[in-house]
Amino acid sequence: MDKISTAERSEIMRRVRSKSTGPELTVRSLVHRLGYRFRLHRKDLPGSPDLVFPRFRKVIFVHGCFWHQHHCPRAVRPQSRSDYWNRKLDGNLRRDRKNKRLLGAGGWGILVIWECQIKPPLLPALGRRIVRFLETP
Question: How far apart are CA 115 and CA 25, in angstroms?
Answer without folding.
Answer: 11
